[in-house]
Amino acid sequence: MTESAFFSKSNTPLIMGILNVTPDSFYDGGEYTDIAAAVKHAQEMAEYGAKIIDVGGESSRPGAEPVDAQTECSRVIPVIKEIAGRHDVTISIDTTKAVVAEEALAAGASIINDISGMRFDTRMVSVAKEYQADVVVMHMQGTPQNMQDNPHYTGWIIDEISSFFDQRIAYLEKQGISRNKIILDPGIGFGKTVENNLDIIAHCDYFKQRFKLPLLIGPSQKSFIGHTLNAEGIDRVWGTAAVIAYLTAAGTDIIRVHHVREMVLVSSMISRIYERKRDSVVMG
Fold it and tell me: By the number of CB atoms within 10 A of the CB, which of 61, 77, 123, 186 ranks highest?
């Protein structure tokens, strides 16, 4: 079987830049609803070092109200077409709706980033197969509307997420999705307490060792950082940078961020240090 193209090389993660073309996303909602502004931001992120641009047209922040597929398509498809026509960068569509994914893939996307783990829309798997798309399978307890009401796990969260991944991987393979097309995301902030999120980050290497699949983690600007550091807004960037340094050292394959330029610098510096450490061991 061909190895996934999304494994990190030499502790250097692929940076996924977040492009929310929504009016209500938790951090940058409303900033990129204009097509020209969205495409310009995508270009800037690519120039700063993002290898993947993740385009989303429906907010998944806690308590967010869902939008219909037509609205979602009207937000993301023109932007994806413009990006695909201008830039040599991988495009991901952040959606739980098969019709949105289908139109996005036809417009130039090649990854489906589904926060439901491809559970909410049963046709999503057939769309992924038809377009031979890579798929991000994320763990989420509940839905965006209720996931943070009272997150609770009966056992150790790492085991529960791993059990979920076991089930979803088996299902997708049974449906004809090749294993080398699967990317795993433990779902930071999606039905998790502050402690749950910290546990996932602290033990992220476990998922790598157990599943031997690319691991994507999206900690950027999230509330667990704010609660941990008593920080809001731009001050969460520093907590995000610390998390990304740790994730880089742990071998995370893809890191999803808002501030591409700054986080590329962080991950590149950590990667360089680890290269020197490996070189020293070989020379010694």
Answer: 186
| Residue 182, both tokens | 């699967």
pTM of the model: 0.92
Domain annotation covers residue 4: no
Measured between alpha carbons, how far is residue 244 from residues 182, 217, 239, 254 in Å?
A: 22, 9, 9, 10
Domain ranges, residue 54 = 14-283
Tens digit of each residue's pLDDT (9 = 90 or more) over 214-233 = 999 999 999 999 999 998 88
What is the spatial order of strands in the sheet that 111-114 belongs to? 182-185, 134-138, 111-114, 90-94, 52-56, 14-20, 254-257, 216-217
CATH number of the structural domain spanning residue 243: 3.20.20.20
Structural domain total, the chain: 1
The three-class DSSP label of residue 274 is helix
Question: Would you state the torsion angle of the CA atoms of residues 120, 96, 115, 180, taken in this order, to the nearest 10 degrees?
Answer: 100
What confidence category does residue 63 fall into, taking pLDDT thresholds of 50, 70 and 90?
low
Q: Is the pLDDT of residue 281 over 70?
A: no
Phi, psi of 9 (to 5 degrees): -115, 125
Q: Which contacts of 142-148 are long-range, i.e. CB under 8 A and separated by 24 or more positions?
A: 142/191, 144/59, 144/60, 144/61, 144/62, 144/63, 144/64, 144/66, 144/115, 144/190, 145/63, 145/64, 145/65, 145/66, 147/62, 147/190, 147/191, 148/62, 148/63, 148/191
Decide if 272 is inside a domain: yes
Looking at the annotation, which residues are catalytic? 222, 256
Integer angstrom CA distances of residue 48 from 2, 39, 69: 29, 14, 31
Tell whether 43 is covered by a domain: yes
